[in-house]
Amino acid sequence: MTKYTKRVLPALASVVMSSLALGLAALSTTVRAQDATSADMTQLIRQGAYLAQIGDCVACHTAKDGKPFAGGLPMSISIGTIWSSNITPDKDTGIGSYTLDDFDRAVRHGIAKNGETLYPAMPYPSYAKVKPSNIKALYAYFMHGVQPVSQANKTTDIMWPMSMRWPLSVWRKLYAPDVVTDDTPVSATDPVLRGRYLVEGLAHCSACHTPRKVTMQEASLSDDGSTFLSGTVIDGYLAENLRGDVKDGLGNWSEGDIVAFLKSGRNEHSAAFGGMAEVVQDSTQFMMDSDLMSIATYLKTLGPAHPDQTSLTYDSATEKMFHDGSASSNGAIQFLNNCAACHRTTGNGWNGTFPRLALSTTVNTKDPSSLIRIVLSGAQMPWTASAPTHYAMPGFADRLSDQDLADVLTFVRSSWGNTAPAVTSEMVAAVRKSLPEKAPATDLQTRLINGICRSKTR
């Protein structure tokens, strides 16, 4: 070995070892950074998944028996039918090619990637109140936490010229609010602020529970008047008054009652039905208790839409009439034969099983649309983790005439202290006409219904 070799090799080895050490250190730093980035992304996706549940995105963007978020759910509007879009990360038929900015423009501004204005069946007027940081989490979830599905979107079933999109852009500019920023105050320690943020934003409660004007915009998007969340008919059901009215609102519900309803689909006052049953089953039952309590706390701050209402008081005269065997009106007889087995002659039902009718906010609403539809078509409580038993009420469309059904509902709405307006046979006929056709009941179903209705009434 030469002197040169003896002198250079150790030095070269030292350089190599030093370089290797530096390389390993750099590699270790890179791995740690990647791990941190991966952990951050995982957390962001989880947050987005939770926010998507609050927004109940799956309800509108999943067709019956379809793949989650692949769209294809028909929605009837006044001028025709539209179908929800594919929001899976499929690049050809979904939103896989959307950037975060594209996603934000669609969700909060109501503008699709191709520049067309979305139909306001997509509640972007409510989502305008969602903070950009939450939109970023939603985007991470839909891009990395949802399975891509190749399913082409359907075109609208709306005749020209109503199918033109440019009027929608005018509507959007007139009625859609400005989007919020991340500076919008939403304190985790202030349940009212948190509840308002959820109710007005992602949960978009106003989309169903606030009346709309002639031009189809919500009468109010926040609590700046008595119309916000004051109730309206949607899909044939009355989305009930969520304000502080003591007769047909939440005035006599406690915060705990509201939380129980959103978590289980039932409480001592009422049970979820129609579209609200799906909201509970797909969305609110999965919300954190703290968020449910924030929603309840906020709702209890809303004043009544009708301050002149007075609280109802239970009246035992109807119960005594049944006990004495003196019931004689057609409404009372129809109730005894068809309803009393479950709802009892006291009108109090069975807590958590069969909803009470006495002093019920659903019973005492001015608009009887929900009651008529439930009696005609039946109803089912949602399946929830906290109340997994699935109770259902059969429909009586084939059993009761329009007049019989009007009589029994008028009886219910004026008994046990209830003070709601009468129901007419014309009201029943109008709702019956709007119902979709159904397959005839089987002999077993008929025997089951008759058996329930003829069982003991107390």
Automatic annotation (TrEMBL):
* Lineage top rank: taxon: Bacteria
Compartments, as annotated in UniProt: Cell membrane
Q: Which InterPro entries match?
A: Cyt_c-like_dom, Cyt_c-like_dom_sf, Cyt_C_IC, Cytochrome_c-type_DH, Membr-bd_ADH_cyt_c
Signal sequence: where?
1-33
Name the Pfam families for this protein.
Cytochrom_C (PF00034)
Picking any one GO molecular function of the record gives: oxidoreductase activity, acting on CH-OH group of donors
What's this protein's name?
Answer: Cytochrome c, mono-and diheme variants
